[in-house]
Amino acid sequence: MDWTPLEHAAIAVGLQLALGLRLRNWWLGGLLACCWFLAREHTQAEYRWIAQHGAGLRANLPWWGGFDASAWNVASMLDWSAPAMACALVWAVARRR
């Protein structure tokens, strides 16, 4: 089993807790962490697109290459959506207090 979605969620929640406790701004830490993991997965999708469609050359990557659905897989979707869901849950709990 691939544990990276859970690891990413733990890292994102850790950052969210650190900033939430320090600044009392619970959405900021979650947003920063989720943007980090989304950007990371988008970059990896670009590299997969280059390997699949760009003949291995970064120069062949169009601006929309990282958004192409063929460059995304289930693991890459989980690697950014798990942190997003975990941070949303922490934000919802912290907001109720």
Q: C-alpha Rg, in Å?
A: 16 Å
Low-confidence stretches: none
3D shape: elongated
DSSP helix fraction: over 70%
Keywords, separated by commas or semicolons:
transmembrane, 97 residues, elongated
Written description of the protein model:
With 97 residues, this protein is mostly helical. It has one domain (4-96). The protein has helices at residues 4-23, 26-53, 74-96. Helix 1 runs antiparallel to helix 2. The mean pLDDT is 94.
Short overview:
With 97 residues, the chain is mostly helical. It has three helices and no strands.
Q: How is the secondary structure organized here?
A:
Blueprint: H1 4-23, H2 26-53, H3 74-96
Helix pairs in contact: 1-2, 1-3, 2-3
Keywords: Membrane, Transmembrane, Transmembrane helix
Transmembrane segments: 71-94
